[in-house]
Amino acid sequence: MTSESSPSASSTSESSSSTPVLSATGIRKQFFGVEVLHGVSLEVHAGTVHGLVGENGAGKSTLMKIIAGVHRRDGGEMRIDNRVVDFSHPVEAGRAGVATVFQEFNLLPDRSVAQNVYLGREPRRRGLVDVKTMRTKTQALLDDLGVEGITPDAKVGWLTVAEQQIVEIIKALSVDARVIAMDEPTAALSDNEVAVLYRVIDTLKSTGVAIIYVSHRLQEIFDLCDTITVLKDGAQVLSQPRSELDQTRLVRAMVGRPISAFFPDPEPGTEIGDTVLEVRGGGNEQLDGIDLQLRAGEILGVAGLQGSGRSELLSALFGVEPFTRGHVRMRGLPISIRSARQGVRKGLALVTEDRKGTGLVLSQSILDNALLAIRSVFPSRTRDMRAKIPGILESLEVISRNSAQEVRALSGGNQQKVVLAKWLATSPQVVFLDEPTRGIDVGAKVAVYRLIRELARRGVAIILVSSELPEVLGMADRILCMADGRIAGELPPSATEEEVLALAIGTEAQVVSDDAQTVSRR
Fold it and tell me: Where is each ABC transporter domain found (predicted)?
C-alpha cells in the first residue's frame, strides 16, 4: 500500500491544535510489583490518527488495555474532553466514547451483523426486541462508512476477516465512540482488504473520530498516521508529527539500530550447492507451467501480488495441494508428493502464513507444539527429540516462563519461533517460508532473518514468500515473480522494487541486472 492511495495524513490541522479528545499523562502500571509502563503520555485529537509503535513487550498492549478499561492504571491521569476519567471496566470506557478493536474479535459467528452490533443493547418495543429498528440503524452505520457487500442480516461467521473487522468498527460507532483504538488491524488482511480498511479510516477521520492505530507495518504507520508515538521497554522514547520522521529514525527509536541492519549478510561459509528440488511444467487447478530449480544453501525469493499463486506454489511443492501435471525431482530423482506427510518424510518443511490457524495448537504447550511434526510423522523419534527441543528453543531465543507454558500466552514473534522450532526438529533439507515475519515486531524479524541465514549456511534450500518487497530484496539470492498462477519472470537480488512490481502486474518495463544482461521474462 503506497501513500498515494492512502488518506491524507497532515501533521498540522485545526483539530490537532485544539483540546485532545483523549489525553493520557504519566501513565504507570505494575504487575506483581514490576513496573511495565513508566510514565507514558499520549494525546489523540478529533479527526486524526495517532500511531503507536514499538517491539513486542514495549508496553503497547498494556497501554491499550488501560485506555480500553481492561486494566486500571497505577499512576498518571487520563482525560476525555479534558474531564478526568478512571475506567474499571470496558463498559465504562464505552460509555465515555472509547472503543477498542482488538486482534481477537469479540463477535458471535452464529448471529447476524445487526445482532452483533447491538448485542446487549438491543432496541426494544413493547418489551420485545425491535428487529426492524436494529436492522435500520445497522444499515445506516454501514452506509455512513460507505461499506458495500455487508448486510445487517448476514451471519458474521460467513464474513471475511476484513468484514468482521468492519463489524467491530460499526459496533464502536453504534455507541457514539469518539475514540477508536485499533490493535494490528491488518495482520490477517489481504492487500485488497487493507485498501478497504484505509478507506474506512479515511471516512472515520472525516467525521471527527479520533483513532489510535497500533501496527508493526511501518508503511501503514506512515500512510495513515498524523502523529507517531514510540514505546520501548515500557517507556515513551519519541512522539512527533509523522512529517518530521522517516523509517530510519523510527526504527532506530524502536530497536536501537538503523533499518540498514535489518537484513544480515550471508553467514561466513555459506555456499550455494547442487540442485535439490526441480519442477518442470508443474500445474494444478491454481498453477500452470511452473518451472523452477532450487539449490542447496540458496534463498529463493517469491514475490507477486495477493492471489498471484505464491502460497499455492508452496502448497503444491509441499503436497498439501499437489501438482497434478508436470515433473518434480529431488536431488535428481523423480518424486511424487501427494500429501503433507509425504512432504515431511522427503525432508520438506512448510511454515504457513497463518501461524495461529495452521501452524500452532494455541491451547497446547510450547513443548507439545515443537513436537507436533515429529509426533505426527516420526513418532519413534519423539523421546529423543523431547530432550533436544529445549536446546532448539534456546537457540531461537524463545522468551517464555518454561516449555510447559501455553503457546497462546506468547508474543507473535515468540509464537513464530515455536513454529520454526517445530520444523527444525525434523532436520529438513528444504524449507518453505510463507510470510514468516507477518505480524511480528522488527526485533523478532531480525531474529528470523538470522535463522534463515544460518539454515542457508548449513546447506538447507529455502523458498521465501513475502508481501514485503524489501524483505525479498534483502534476503533472496534470486527472485521469482508470480502473476495469475504462473512464474512471470526471474530477477537478481540487485533488482529494484519497481522492477519486481513491473513483472508482478505484467507491465513491459525492461528489467536489467548489474551486468547489463536482460533478465529472463516468461
Answer: 22-258, 270-509
Residue pair 83/124 in contact (Cβ under 8 Å)? The answer is no
What pLDDT score was predicted for residue 260?
59
φ/ψ of residue 352, rounded to 5? -75, 160
Structural domains of the chain, count: 2
Residue span of the structural domain in which 20 resides: 15-254
- pLDDT range class, residue 257, cuts 50, 70, 90: low
Euclidean distance between CA atoms 349 and 374, whole angstroms: 12
Note whether 92 and 223 are same-domain residues: yes
Q: DSSP string of 304-349?
A: E-TTSSHHHHHHHHHTSS--SEEEEEETTEE----SHHHHHHTTEE
Q: pLDDT, tens digit, for every residue of 293-337? A: 999 999 999 998 777 899 999 999 999 999 999 999 999 999 999
Per DSSP, 406 falls in state: B
For 369, phi and psi rounded to 5 degrees?
A: -65, -40
Q: Report angle CA 301, 450, 480 to the nearest 5 degrees.
A: 5
Look at residues 254, 279, 295 and tell me which one is the last residue of a structural domain: 254
**How far is the first Cα of the chain from the last one, in angstroms, to the nearest whole number?**
26
Of 208, 144, 202, nearest to 170 (Cα)? Answer: 144
Cα–Cα distances in angstroms (integers) from residue 188 to residues 47, 162, 193, 235, 305, in the given order: 26, 8, 9, 28, 15
223/362 same-domain check: no
| pLDDT-above-90 percentage for the chain | 58
Query: Which of these ranges, 134-138, 239-243, 427-431, 499-503, has the smallest mean pLDDT?
Result: 499-503
Q: Answer yes or no: is 436 within a domain.
A: no
Closest CA to 245 of 236, 257, 253, 255: 253
Distance, in Å, from the CA atom of 53 to the CA atom of 57, rounded to the nearest integer, reads 11
Note the helical H segments in 363-485. Answer: 366-370, 372-377, 382-395, 412-424, 442-457, 469-475
